[in-house]
Fold:
Amino acid sequence: MIIRHRSIMLRNLFGLLALAGLAAATQWIPLRWDLTEEGRHTLSDTSRKMVARLEDVLTIEVLVSEAPPAHLRPHLQRLTTLLQQYSQAGGGKVDLVVRHPANEQDLEQELEKRGLKRARVNQVRDDRLEMVELWYALRLRYGEHEEVFADLTQLREPEYQLTAAMLRLTWDGPITIGLVGPPLSYGNGGYAYTEDGNLKTVIQSLSETYAVKVIPVMPGEPLVLDGLDAVFVWGLDRFEPVQHYQFEQWLLAGHPATLLVGGVALDPVYAVAESRAVTDVDSWFDHLGFRVERALVADQSSARVRYTESKPPVLKAYPLFPELKAAGGGLGQEERAHHQINSLVVPWCSPLTQTHPAGVTTNIIGQSSEQAWLQKETYQLDPAKLPGPTQFDQYAIGLKLGGRYNAYFPRPEHLPAENHLARGEHTTLRVWSSEFLLTSIRKAGTLVWVNQTADAMTRQSLTVGIPRRDNAARPLKALTESERKRTRLLSLLAALLLPALIGTAHLCYRRLRSVDPYL
Amino acid sequence: MIATLAVAQKEIRHGLNALFFYLIAVVFAAAPAFSLFWNPAPTNVFISNHTSLVGFFQVLPLFLTVFVPALAMRAYGEEHHAGSFELLLTQAGDWPIVLGKFLGSFIILLVGLAATFGLPLLVAQLGDLDWGPVFGGYLGAVLFGAVCLAVCLSAGVFCPNQTSSFVVSLCLLGTLMVLPVPALNIQTRFQNFAEGLVLFPDLGFFIGLTACFLTINRIAIGLRR
Structure:
């Protein structure tokens, strides 16, 4: 009996060891399946191409304490998995190293000399919440350059942020900003939005960092946006259908743009204003996630901004342009383009309304003060004759939209079908409801805004195609309170349903088969 | 094979005849529903305002660590209580008993998991739901449940009654959930599935661990003969 037991034990212990060995062996097989629709856990083609283009060795150092708190472990594991993908995609050009600075005095001293500190992380120990300091950082080194992420808990979009950092390390080519739109004519026969005209200041300023290209949109001419990394666009209501299509296709390819759209057509020289006609472009705006209202926003809390033309006839000073102030919450501080901008004057702007299309995230990045009011038709541009406010309110003037859009404009027959995109990459759009932001540089803040918007857009464009969490978070549709209550009740009913069905089916089966219930 | 199926069939029949099974199945399905739609916490979809089941899959392992021991404690506990364990040993081999008990309880576990499937369907009605992580989460839950079941059944052989089986299983699973080594922590492994990422090492880990505990179960039964 004892011998039999020993034999069973031995045989099964061998079996157990073999199973444990097999399970351990699978840990080195790098097979993986990313089930998310956007491929969030898979390195995007953009990142793959980027690391494949490396000419020198890129060293990724994961600088972590040996035993991170339990709640950080899944995060660290996912990050390591992502970094391994970079390493695989780069062949021998990406060197991934995990180091524990606390165990390497020299390294710790070097990091501290460079101003890198341990991250502060909350940790639950013995039922008490305490703050611990530990190494949880990442360093990318490429030649003499390096990029550091001091606290990996702040890395919200790991692939996007890492690839952007790698691009910053390796990028040496020029970035081209396009200024795209029709040269609008004024009542005095002159044209605005021309290279030598009132776009001159903006071009001069942008040229310090970027290659700038002005693309005048002319009737009957194709819109060629090849080679542009990001664009500022105005006068979209004057584009022809083919040009709309070409511009939309360019956006769907994932390029960023800042749209300058106004609901009121203005001729500031002759002080004439009229509502823009509703056209197909308004339906497209709806599709993108916003609507431009046919009114002007006036804001009496703003500083008085003179608006005069040098050529006769001279327009009187217009004191009511909204001046969005960072301190008052008028400029969204989470928006990178608004970094260190205290205020922005937005001439002749209209209110923007969000339309919340499915799968598109919308954020207000610019809004008037609460003392703003609307001027509706018939517009009065002469401040001396202004009727004054009837109702105060706060109006959205700038929006940031992000998502994957479906094509809205049909493909013109003469354009090739093989290049047609029915659904786009992740696109980020900034929308401002004034067509005068590039031409009416009334304060230094406007130039800073132009440059920082271009900067934010191009960093975006360099990482086109990288899936991001803000896109992954899909919003609920608008629900009434009664719909929410109904869903809550249904959730409990759903929990009861299957056990009840199985119980009933089992009872019926027992009765049919006359099975003794006590068996 | 026939003996395995017979043991599994008996296990399922016993499970479905017991009111206790229906009670825990309803609690198991209702608790995530409460977490997802009623609880005033970020796991609530109405608070997070996103069509995501991350909150559901965060709490599911915790519910499974209670549900599975409650389900598995009867497998051997009932035999010990009725004095039929020795009889069972004479009528079937070690592996048929182990696999039959596992298969029967596993099918009941699948029914319990299926009872929660109304929740993703409801969330899908509220907006555009990414089904990839949902399927990944359920695959992870099935594998996680299988490990829990194998652990609990192994514990059940050694325990003389249902209560001790439940308590020992709960302690063992709790240990596996909080192990400080990420590679051996079942909850850390499960979270990848819940995020829609299926890694072959995770599959190997769960399947290997289940097989290891079933082998331990078989050794324990062999020693009882």
